[in-house]
Design brief:
- The chain is mainly α and about 400 residues long.
- Helices cover about 75% and strands about 0% of the residues.
- The protein is built from 14 helices and no strands.
- It has helices spanning about 20-25, 40-50, 55-80, 85-105, 110-135, 140-170, 185-195, 205-210, 220-250, 255-285, 285-305, 310-335, 340-365, 375-395.
- It is globular, with a radius of gyration of 21 Å.
- About 50% of the residues are buried.
């Protein structure tokens, strides 16, 4: 996970792509964390389908993640056959269609379940390419900046779509699903302004076909990044999942205050994503060390917090440090992966991230102790140990 790896690819010159092209490419990331945007309508959905067990209804919020994992794996193979742009276009169309089906079909639970699975299919086709296409079109500091922006766009999309769904539910529970119409303007922008291949808007078909037949592979550094992100994502998702219970269980505040704190953490992460390019330019390889230390310290502050104010400080430190780590590691993928294997390597890393998110509740149970905040102590110590090991590794290499 270092920019000076001997396997790093030769950097291309700074691009001449327009701001509109960059925005159109980044805009697809607005959708990628929005599968839970309709979680606020769960009480209405449970009431709408009284014949279904609560667990089945709650699965509507998380089931897109399962189909996303499958399609993240498949997206690389599909992209080699039809091209990156066509794959993303198909994903956006699928997301737009399946995302809004529950608005029109309100009485058939299994149709809604199928639509949520279809939404995950669309997101899965887009997910890895949202990262690897940035690496194909850009390089150097510009790529690092846009990777940070991509992380910020994910946070922005999550915040905006959750907020929009909250307003739409005032009309009716099924109106919340209209938020997925956002895929339509993003689709238009992507089709109009993002070229099929770097530096060649027309993309020579014979060259594309030749590249499509090239065998992609995964190497040791990519596997190391994947393992690292499984651990990091598991800890951060566990930290945020447990936050509401810690706030209410300790008597520090209410569920509404906890929700507000989570929203502020997301906004802080978004701002840090926009600043990532500058941070990475200054700190270089130690960007990850600083992110790990900050997340570890934030977790420890939350464990030892005597009141809500101190807990908020720890949570905000954690919230702004996490995107720094994610942006850095995703920026490294194209630097350390085998040549021409960006899509496959990104897919492997994203599967690791989704697996980490999926296992977070089980990890909380595993490391839980005498108090609800016990995992924060464990996470803080582990993160600081990883940070120390990573920092020493780079100092020795120098």
């Amino acid at each position: 996970m270092t920019t000076d790896s001997p396997t790093a690819q030769t950097a291309r010159p700074r691009s001449a792509y327009s701001p509109l092209m960059k925005f159109s490419l980044l805009a697809i990331s607005l959708l990628l964390t929005s599968s839970n945007a309709i979680s606020g309508v769960m009480p209405a959905l449970i009431k709408q389908f009284p014949d279904q067990p609560r667990a089945n209804v709650e699965l509507l919020s998380t089931v897109p993640s399962f189909s996303m994992i499958i399609m993240i794996i498949a997206s690389g193979f599909i992209a080699r056959k039809i091209g990156d742009k066509a794959t993303v276009t198909a994903g956006l169309v699928i997301a737009a269609v399946f995302g809004v089906i529950p608005f029109f079909v309100t009485n058939n639970f299994w149709v809604i379940m199928g639509s949520r699975i279809g939404l995950g299919v669309g997101f899965g086709l887009i997910n890895s390419l949202a990262v690897s296409m940035i690496a194909k079109f850009f390089s150097g500091d510009e790529k690092a900046t846009l990777m940070g922006f991509r992380s910020a766009f994910e946070s922005l999309g999550q915040s905006l779509m959750t907020l929009a769904a909250g307003f739409l539910v005032l009309l009716s529970w099924n109106s919340s699903f209209l938020v997925y119409f956002l895929a339509v303007p993003i689709l238009v922008l992507f089709v109009l302004f993002v070229p099929k291949e770097p530096n060649d808007p027309k993309a020579d078909d014979s060259a594309q076909a030749q590249n499509g037949n090239a065998k992609q592979s995964v190497n040791g550094p990519i596997l190391l990044i994947t393992v690292f992100l499984i651990v990091a994502v598991t800890m951060y998702i566990g930290l945020t999942t447990r936050l509401s219970s810690v706030v209410t269980g300790s008597g520090f505040g209410t569920m509404q205050q906890a929700s507000t704190l989570l929203s502020v953490m997301t906004i802080g992460g978004m701002l840090m994503g926009f600043a990532f390019g500058l941070i990475n330019k200054i700190l270089k390889a130690q960007t990850l060390t600083v992110g790990l230390v900050a997340l570890g310290i934030g977790s420890l502050i939350m464990f030892f917090a005597p009141n809500f104010v101190v807990l908020c400080i720890g949570a905000l430190i954690a919230g702004i440090s996490y995107p720094t780590m994610i942006s850095y590691t995703f920026n490294q993928i194209s630097e350390v992966c085998p040549k021409g294997s960006d899509t496959l390597c990104t897919s492997v890393v994203l599967v690791g991230c989704n697996f980490g998110a999926f296992t977070a509740p089980y990890t909380l149970k595993l490391v839980g102790g005498a108090s609800l905040s016990q995992p924060y102590l464990v996470y803080g110590i582990v993160l600081l140990v990883i940070a120390a090991g990573y920092a020493v590794y780079h100092l020795v290499r120098k």
